[in-house]
Amino acid sequence: MRRMRYDEPAAVAFRAGRHVPADGLAHWRAAVARHLAPRPGMALLDLGAGTGWWAQLFTAWYGVQVVAVEPSAAMRARARAPRLVAGRADALPLAAGSLDAAWLSTVVHHLADLPAAAAELRRVLRPGAPVLLRSVFAGRADQITLLRFFPEAIRLVDDTYPQAATVRAVFAADGFTAAAGEAVTQVSAPSLAAVLDGLDRDAHTPLRLIDDDAYAAGLTRLRTAATATGPVIDTMDLLVLR
Questions:
Q1: CATH code of residue 98
Q2: pTM of the model as a whole
Q3: Three-class SS state of 161
Q4: Is residue 87 scored above 80 in pLDDT?
Q5: Tally of structural domains, the chain
């Protein structure tokens, strides 16, 4: 089920505060390259592209042709992507068999109809093309440093986000098999102080969905801890389906 409405405040906050610095994504660059096997002329779908950060990175990193699909008009208005189109996961405005891969970053928990999305991905992808899902799955939210200060947000993720096994099962119904699954680390920020300084509740689905008292208590915990030094290293999951 879609977790939040990506309206103007959310789009502004997302653009300002949700992008991990590119130099903190070395492990993601390597992991995606292993499973994507990029080549000149490859056409890749960035589904739920938001403001186009990953579309820009994939173009720069691998030289592939990225088609960014995003349903939110507010997000699209702030997006920078080589090719950006309006569309939903359950009704992709793309030709059958026209794409060599698909990328979904922190998207799967927003999909109102995951089986329909899987069927659409099967339709638009060429046979054997990979679907790469970067996500926080249920039971894994404590790997995100920011969320550790908001235990109610971790419980919300654990209670309502899909498990990796559920996603695999849904995609299996459309002929996808799980090709790989791994945990990938990233340097999300130079310090907790930087996280606190750039924090906008509107940019984070779990923080928007907890109540105000829980958010205020977590913010107090984060302020107390923000004197710590050292980079903020998080782990997210990469699920690859073919």
A1: 3.40.50.150
A2: 0.93
A3: coil
A4: yes
A5: 1
